[in-house]
Amino acid sequence: MLLEYAAINELEFDCRPQRHRPSYRRDGKEAELKRTRPRSPCTVVSSAHPNHRQDEHPSGYVHQTPTMVAITLPLLAALAATPSRLGIVCARFKESLDPWAPVAASTYLYSKGGVPQMNDTVQHSSFRSYVSLRNIGREGHTHLYHIVNNYDTLDDIMIFTQADPFDLIAPVVNTTEQMVQKAMSVPADDVTPFNDALFHDVADWGRIDWNSSAQKLWITASQIKSLQLAPYTPAQFWTMIVGGEHPPAIRAMHGGTFAVRRETIRKLPKEAYQKALNEFETTNSTNPEVGFFMERMWAPMFSEKYRLPSVQNP
């Protein structure tokens, strides 16, 4: 069945092939999305939508809201199957918003680069929320900020991501559509980095020599130059946040992009995430060492299956 438009949670989505889709304008004004042909019998429209008028002629339909975005049928099916609304937390500096337009209605966009609307092709108002944050703490600060401020209202399935994650999660996952589909299948008490090749075991609990060859996977030479060192070791950070003695080794996710269920996040109390967020806020750095600690600790914080007796997959 071919859909031109469909509605989920009272939001309309444009399901037409790319050649039939209107484009967002670059002049900073609200995008106009116009229909150029009659509705097909397969069209699904929400009568609860604020712009729906029952007396409008189908061949002259004009929809002037930025919430209509290009979407594909597999993604539509994935969103419809979500037990509640999917939540996508996207940490942005100055990256393009185009990949996130199809899932804008589910995306909490956190902007740390101060890009004005006039320089973006996608309307900021089309996102579930568009919030400006100080440019500190890398993506870990953004993820923690959302968890702490929305702990009691987290969506059933959460994606946490950088704005341009595809250089890492490809070739397994190449689009936001594929990210959503993979997120839908993440089990309880687990987490996925979208590409299992991004899992690496580490046992660095003392002071880390970031200049060593073993750390090249995790940090670049330019990042080392501006790194703000933490006043504690990874072992001390673990005890501070999770509590107790750290495991001998952990299975870490490289890249700071992952999907996890709400109940898995809530296995730790809000206070644990608040403590971690406080460390980022106190450091107040664009490139803090604690950001690299946090990147490694997400998976074992969420699930004990990633707390290991030894390094098995370096």
Automatic annotation (TrEMBL):
Compositionally biased tracts (Basic and acidic residues): 24-35
Origin: domain of life: Eukaryota
InterPro entries: DUF3431
Location of region: Disordered: 19-58
Protein name: Uncharacterized protein
Organism: Colletotrichum phormii
